[in-house]
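Table S2 (continued). Query chain:
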Amino acid sequence: MPKSTRTRSTRRAPRGSVARGAIETITRPQQTWPVKLLLTVWRWRWELLLVATVVYIVIAHGDAITGYFRSNPLWLNALLIIVLCGWIVTDNPARRFTLNRMWCLITRHRLRACLIEMRILNYSGNIPFILACFSTKTGQVVWLWMRPGQSVEDLDNKAESLASACWASKATIARSKRNAAIVRIDIDRRDPLAKTHITSPLLNDTSDMPEAAVADDAVMAFLAPDTTDSAPDESTTQPPAKTGTAAETRTRTSKTKTTAAVNDSQTVILGSNGEDVSDYV
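Corresponding output:
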């Protein structure tokens, strides 16, 4: 019997195998270790500064702090701890600054992770560079520097994903008017007017008046138009009396139109139903 002419490339795939029609390829930039080290230090600079401060306090002033607490009685140490905890919990400028910086750090890291997961990358595999993150009254604002091959169009319809990644209620994306490479992202976490009672200044004149003084009749009289100053024009408000047949009415209207052609500025043309049609002639 003749041998089969089928090659390996034309053989049928075995059962249970899954065909993959597309493969996503993500390139990574070739960076040297000094560049990677500098980027890592820049990304984690606030955390490294906090760790360095704690280590410095423990090494330089650890013995002094321990000796101070050992020399004090137990009730004084407990009172100091309670006062310190109350100062941390209560609203003060230091606490607000600490919380704002903490949320800025969280926003930076969450935003960077979201940009990577959404594949906001250029051909070299770089994500937009996060320039700065500042605190606002409603949340945080993040400034991005779009690298070559990126623009604000890459972030279209991505506001909800950014808000979800940053644990916020809303995110707004806007481009700088001067430089297309600079993009601003507003992360809104709270509404400053949500718990504020707004009083209208329009009620100052009637807040102390009794209810009987502000009656419905007085309000309606105040809202009613004043008809004594201007009298209505009889020629435009009152239609002419309809006499005769419809043919006579059409004849009279046609005569009026002929007269209006001679002197348009003084003649008022009325239709068959009494409507002023001077503007349409």
